[in-house]
Amino acid sequence: xxxxxxxxxxxxxxxxxxxxxxxxxxxxxxxFTNTQVAYIQVEEGDEAPDRQKSIEKKLLNFIKWISRxxxxxxxxxxxxxxxxxxKASPEFTKELFNRIEKRLKNVDxxxxxxxxxxxxDLDVQAPGFSLARVFQDFK
Length: 139
Fold this sequence. Notes:
The protein has two helices and six strands; from the N terminus they run ββαβαβββ. By secondary structure, the protein is an alpha/beta fold. Helix 1 packs across helix 2. The chain starts with a strand and ends with a strand.
């Protein structure tokens, strides 16, 4: 799994192109402020039964850690299949996102997901400080 975390003063999206036929239709735009955006690339190897719990735990802990460092409990989960050539199945990826969202909400985070299976028009306003942009490779 690859993860790019970007702290945003403002993060907004609008669905542009649907890339997966089986997903629900989304047309609404959304906007968030003071939020930690997780650009997540779930890789094929992450689906291995012996890796699934480890990957989920590492992702959850990293999101909580960086969010605390950036003084926010607002998180947006965004599937970003551009950090690696390896891709997990859409079904596995979406299930993982749903579990992470639920677990973060259980510890009082405000969590949203961008529409899964879409290219989005993004509007990102991200400040320039040391922990505003962090990359993590969970091998």
